[in-house]
Amino acid sequence: MATVTFDHATRVYPGTERPAVDQLNLEIEDGEFLVLVGPSGCGKSTSLRMLAGLEDVNGGHIFIGDRDVTDVQPKDRDIAMVFQNYALYPHMSVADNMGFALKIAGTPKAEIRQRVEEAAKILDLTEYLDRKPKALSGGQRQRVAMGRAIVRQPQVFLMDEPLSNLDAKLRVQTRTQIASLQRRLGVTTVYVTHDQTEALTMGDRIAVLNAGILQQVGTPREMYDRPNNVFVAGFIGSPAMNIGTFDVKDGHVKVGSADVPLDRSIASEMTDADGGKVTLGFRPEALDPVPVGTPGSFDVEVNLVEELGSDAFVYGTLKGDAADVNLTAGETNQLIVRIDPRTVPDKGDVIAVSIQAGHSHVFSATSGERLG
Amino acid sequence: MPQQNLQITAVAPDPALLDLPWDVPLVDWPEDVLAALPQGISRHVVRFVNHGGRVIAIKEIGETVAYREYELLRQLHRIEVPSVVPVGVITGRRAPDGERLEAVLITEHLQFSLPYRALFSQDLRPDTATRLIDALAVLLVRLHLVGFYWGDVSLSNTLFRRDAETFAAYLVDAETGDLHRTLTNGQRNYDVDLARTNIIGELMDLAAGELLDEDVDEVAIGDALVERYQELWNALTGSEAFASDDRWRVAARIERLNDLGFDVGELEITTDIDGTKVRIQPKVVDAGHHSRRLLRLTGLDVQENQARRMLNDLDSYRAATDRQNDQEQIVAHAWVRQVFRPTIDAVPRELRRKLEPAQLFHEILDHRWFISQQAQRDIPMPEAAESYVENVLRHRPDEDAVLGLPPGEAEEAELEA
After folding, report:
1. What Rg do the C-alpha atoms of chain B give, in angstroms?
2. CATH topology of domain B7-109
3. How far is A252 from chain B (nearest CA, A)?
4. Contact between chains at A74 and B41 (C-beta distance less than 8 A)
């Protein structure tokens, strides 16, 4: 087991100017489950493949433990790409399916059996070891595939969107299994996904990338509670955070008809370039419905209500004087409010909401960086 | 009962596809729509189906992956890499009870192709494994040359087609693949290493099922792929130095590449400052490329193989006369005047009508390569032409006349000659 270090690691594809991964600095602790997440083309898979030795590193270094592996061939890096091949061989027993790579490597038979048995115990496959894969369920087959990687006892597991070709049911099941298994094995794991829910539920820490640049790295809680910039704020959380750029007057942010007080220390960080505006973010769950006309509240006209049983979300339009702003919540340009599913307004109703104290996020209108 | 809301993504959507039982999981499809064909190992459910006079392969797979693989297969098809042809993607399937069913990717079944399991369990000749491995090495090199990283090379993800003396391999599963501008050595080595592991695993599986001869050494076969791949890759991309009076070595190398089944018409020849060394950097070219190029350069309109040979000679001529920087057309014109015409003219008029000029030239080149190798030196063209006329052409039937005879008599004419 080992740490993994990206030290100013850069990948520039031939014929392109902008690096696919730009000066990535990231230290992954021994035994940690780190998730690289971001939208398509953000550089997350490229980063993983640099670690795997599949992409050249054009600048900087990559270390596994204390060893500089920047120019080491993939098979000599002591890593395992989990789930790369998990077609099971029908004539071989489950044990042979798990151990065949060791056999190829010339590992003594007794040792193979021992390692396979250890892995099977962790994977709850012991009773199936001498059966054929035909006897296994879909989930058990996934575990055999994991077993193939485990018996090799690599320093680091790499997983690149491993759940993308599973059906929805198996995906959720396997997600939980991978996470708990990783914790039991304690093998340093780097996991790539475009799905922020997957990232939040699985990772010890999450690294968000965008356009080849690391935006923020932290625990799921940190990423959710204190996003460093507008990008992370908008990317993490489902449904997405409401984000808009509003005027600041007399120490207050003008949101619709509301004056939302702005902390003095935050206001002091504004620059002339900001033109008297800040970007304000507030999550759908940070809004409280209040009677219309309550001071500090703003009005939202209901366009659609999404009912999910335990939750309900209003998709609406911000009303009032300072409503003409570029407000978005993820993919939509509507404002999203979480409401009690037992008191659902109708389409066309106007509801008033206020932002819970301490649950707004203020960013520079020019740089998008967090203020305060 | 919830309606299915099927969506077909295809270049030429075939409405008849909708008649298939999409509301049933693939694994439960009725026998009467299925085509009985041998299958490989797959992590997904795959079925062959008779459909409108052809056979299609249907694979259940996640929606995003299905679209991705469909696009990749289209791209591979466009750049003429041997791969299965994608038909389309169908999404929005639902069972009668409303349960959502997986999307499917549909590909054309490759006619006369066989998965390796079928090849091994029927009429197994001792060198079958070698042939399969060679075909896979050729495919892998071709894929790597166009920048395709496979990510899961295996015999199962390949289909094999008997092609005269050898097997031709086709890519069937591009699920884990990626198309790049160029591949890094890391990507290539990883692909090759994984191929080795997978092949050995697949053969071990056949052995466990008692489908493989007991004498077969699985690991040796896996190692052979790595070796064949490296040979081919080096032959195609490596550069080699020659003394300029060792032109037969250039021809030998071209011959070797041709034997490997590659088009190597376009040679990048650079001459060193002192002019004594020649370096070759072969490239892979499109079908029909050689005859088009020769026609453009010389006005000679000949068949592809003949054109390839003549262009090889033209490129060697360019290097030998140190005219790399001259305009290609001008050098080609000089080559016609100084090499091609004199060679044809060296053949006595009464013998010339035995073969077309292009074929005549082609055969003289062939003959020169043969006698150069015997003599271990570079035989000049006039000497080669003379030897060819005396030792070969005089003893050949008159092709013009043979072609004019009915088939039976032509055979007799050949025997008499």
Report:
1. 26
2. Phosphorylase Kinase; domain 1 (3.30.200)
3. 45
4. no
